[in-house]
Amino acid sequence: MRITTSMMFDSGTRNILDLQGSLYKLQDQLSTGRRILTPADDPVAAAQALVVSQRASVNTQFIDNQASASSQLSELEDRYSAMVDLLQSVKARVVDAGNAAYSDSNRRAISAEIRERYDELLGLANATDAQGQHVFSGFRGDTRPFSVSGSPGGRTISYAGDEGKRQMQVETDRVMDLSDSGADVFMRIPQGNGIFEFSPGAANTGTGTIGAYSMITGFNGSTYDISFTSSTSYSLVVTTNGVPAPATGPFAYVPGQDIVLGSGSQQFKVVIGGAPNAGDAFTAAPSTNKDVFSTLDQMISALESPVAVNDVTKAQFRNQMTEISNNLDQVMDRFLTRQTSIGARRIELEALSNVGADLNLQYQTDMSRLQDLDFTEAISSMANRKMVLEAAQLSFKQVSQMSLFNYL
Amino acid sequence: MGSGMLSIGITGIHAAQLGLEATQHNIANANTPGYSRQYIQQSAGIPRLTGSGYFGSGTTVDTVRRSYDKYLTQQVQSAQTNASESAAQLAKLSQIDNMLGDPSSGLAPALQEFFTGVQQVAANPSLISARQSMLAASQTLTTRFNALNQRMAELYDGVNGEITSELSLINLYATQIGDVNGQITRAEAATNQPPNDLLDLRDQLVAELNKHVRVSTVEDSIGNFNVFVGNGMQLVVGNVVNALTPVTSSFDPERIVVGFKGLSGTVQELPESLIEGGTLGGLMSFRRSALDDAANTMGQIAASLALTFNAQHALGQDLQGLNATSPSGAGFQANYFNISGPKVFKGATTAADVTASFLPPSGDPVNGNFYTNLTGSDYVLRNDGTNLTLTRQSDKTTWSVATGAGLAGLNAAIAGEGFSLGGAVPTANVDYLIEPTRDIARNIALNPYIVADTRRIAAAAPTVTTLALANTGSLKVTQGQVASGYSLTGLPLTFTFDKAGDEYDFLSGSVTATYADGTTAGFGPGPASVDRLNGSGKELMRITVNGISIDLSGLPANGDQFTIAANLNGVADSRNAVKLGSLQIQNTTAGGKATYQATYASLVSENGALTRQVKITGEAQAALLEQNESARSSVSGVNLDEEAANLIRYQQAYQASARALDISSKLFDVLLGIAN
Lengths: 408, 676
Description:
The structure holds 2 protein chains of 2 kinds.
Chain A: H1 5-32, H2 43-97, H3 104-125, E1 146-149, E2 156-159, E3 167-171, E4 174-177, H4 182-187, E5 196-200, E6 209-210, E7 214-215, E8 223-228, E9 233-240, E10 243-244, E11 248-252, E12 258-261, E13 268-273, E14 281-286, H5 292-304, H6 311-371, H7 375-401
Antiparallel strand pairs in A: 1-2, 3-4, 5-14, 6-13, 7-13, 8-9, 8-14, 9-10, 9-11, 12-13
Helix pairs in contact in A: 1-7, 2-3, 2-6, 3-5, 5-6
Chain B: H1 2-28, E1 38-44, E2 48-50, E3 53-55, E4 59-66, H2 70-101, H3 107-123, H4 128-191, H5 196-212, E5 215-219, E6 225-229, E7 233-237, E8 240-241, E9 244-248, E10 256-261, E11 267-269, H6 278-314, E12 337-338, E13 343-346, E14 354-358, E15 379-383, E16 387-392, E17 398-402, H7 406-413, E18 419-423, E19 431-435, H8 440-443, E20 445-446, H9 448-452, E21 463-467, E22 476-477, E23 481-482, E24 493-498, E25 503-506, E26 511-515, E27 520-523, E28 528-531, E29 540-545, E30 548-553, E31 561-566, H10 575-582, H11 596-636, H12 640-675
Antiparallel strand pairs in B: 1-4, 2-3, 5-6, 6-7, 7-8, 9-10, 10-11, 12-20, 13-19, 14-18, 15-16, 15-19, 16-17, 21-31, 22-30, 23-30, 24-25, 24-31, 25-28, 26-27, 26-29, 29-30
């Protein structure tokens, strides 16, 4: 091939320019540490990097949410702990109040304490969080959930919140509840054993007292009325869906002995003690709800009424205390269930955070793999290009100096 | 004999002089672009007949020729036009590439920050400062959309300006070629000798023209180059030049395209795809394939974000308890973002006006999430008298209905494209260009009412469900989810469980019940009852009243009640904000197939791949150009060493001929001496 002078100069300079271009790019990569300087360098990896960076950012957001959720739940858990402590001390007072040696004035002293406890629990129920939002008012964060009317011993409580549970998204597919509604925690508490309650008639004139009652195989939701026809026998009327069945009995009454009611797979037992009079009644009925404040108020009222008048009033007091004790057990059960549920959610959050931290590391590794420069390779290729460039410059210098005109 | 010798010597000297001249011309033009090496063509003079035979009469220089290969020159021109096209395209593409891929200024970080803001409101719905920070992040996002679009608008403006200046250069070269055509034909006609330097000049002008646009040349019988552009448009015929002029596209007033001004003086708009090669072809191709796509996709993301976010926002309730069912004028803001509608251009100013608007997003939050079907393509609508046809420009998919069915008929067919058409019946045989998403990234903005009052962010949901305090069963109900078009009429609505009938009694309204096996049944209007178990004994899972859906679980006791009510004072409710936040990770675009970010990533990837492809093609074309130039140069180029040798050659020829003259003179002197 015939070579012309301009070809020699053109190709020499072009090669040098090309080499300088690739050296410039290598230098850019080395100084930024990035393999992909623009998406055109590796379009697929650049797009993947965008997707991974979004995942990483969402993951970081969820980790933040998990931390925030965990701290809110921890705060809520503390409140439940305080309420459980409070309830335990009230329960201890119920036991104290049953002490036969106590006088009315002893009981009034206990009542004074329960009054304080009532206010304390009300305070906890109306508590606000760091942002001034009421904790137990559902979605109605700036509504004070519980308000009281009436005077101690006869107060009624009303709930102004709703049943909303505040939520936070803590994972792609997990929205976690962070609050409990006050209605659920304080108001909607079943009485008795949670399934049914056994209570004495209000007009009883004897000294009959209720003892422990429980299910044997089940409870069918009917109402069982036990009416004493004499001090030693009673009859039974079972009312199902509002329709009373014909009375059965009479049955012989033995104080303190189990009375088994119901049949088949829906049997349960109750115990009556003491000496009921003819006409006294006892009823086993499905549990109805009673709020914890009313239970406390009932306790105050019972403690403050005269008990030591006669055996009948003493029996009534005992029955009241049994009822209160049962109700407080249900409240305690509710608080502990909620506390356990929070504990479970916190464990879940911890697990999620661990996964999140692992994922973060994984995303960082992915990003690095997609974007980062292999320094060893880059540096060695830098040295290589540099050598080639020097050779090109040197050969250009030598070739360009050769001319026949030098000899003319 | 002596005179013969003398005259032969003179022809030799003359030829050597011309040879030296040609060599010097070559040396002088060693670096002139497009110059072809010239050489003299010598032949022996016509011999004289003598008694002793034919004697030569010295030498003649017939002509001076150029070392030229027509095909090699054309190959260079062709390679040149390809290389220039790629270079022009690459220069522009790199700008988009850098802009989209920049880790700090691309869309990705703004999108992430925006959703972080939403999450903050979801975590603290009643906190004004969280709402402010969401607003700030939203403003960053809309500004980023606007800024990216602004950069693209600058690129559009740049392309428009460059097309105009390219065309004036093309016209300049065309005029020069026309002039040189005239000079060459005159010169050849006068002497019948090739005007080598003019021919080189014309080739060089064609090569320069090819840098700007691909042209083809045909040499006519008298030696004119006729130059054609596009699909045979005559740019230069002889010395007549038909100018290319920049004209505004009849479709899009913001777009400059190439017009061809024929002899009659009327300007004809050339389709963009006809212009190929050179810088002009590169610019056109960049605008058509990359810039339109980037602007449309950016608009697609902006429109999808705005439409889906607005749809979810409209289902919420703001901090003051206002929601979509509040009286109009009460101040509820359904839209979080404001966007414009699709753009429609008509091909003739007198044609009837057709409008386009976005369809509301598909999907619903009860069963999934909102998503749009927008594609990021442009569409052409045409009424050919019998059919209304819409063509998607990206893949030429068409939808056709009889003209009688009207736009309503066409809308039913194109429901999967995310927009609908309206306005007058399209004028027959006029093209309408519809650009659904082109301008959305430019226009997206926050609703100013929300900017003015952050309480208008609808973080809560409009309904709540409450269980009666006397409930003793294990019935649980969800707080409820509303769907588009919900109403709060008839609330609060209480459902009371009747154990005897195993059903929920309610007093008013109509209820749709969904059972565990997926079957649904309607009940009401109230007073009526909803069965707890359906005919196959499956449990009631969900009830829907007026667009409000409640999920049920657990077993109610007789008389248990739940009530659906308006959400009053629900300041700590962030149900809607949680839904808004989760839009980030849901498939909200491209017919429910991709997240916002994935659509953006695919734009970055497509554009990066195109840039890379053009870069590699450009490198290959540059190498080809280099090879072709070498091949041409190998034939036509000047080698100075060679010219140095030629100098010596002709110098020696000159010296020898001069010597012969000297001898001839001396011989004559001898004869004169005899006479003396």
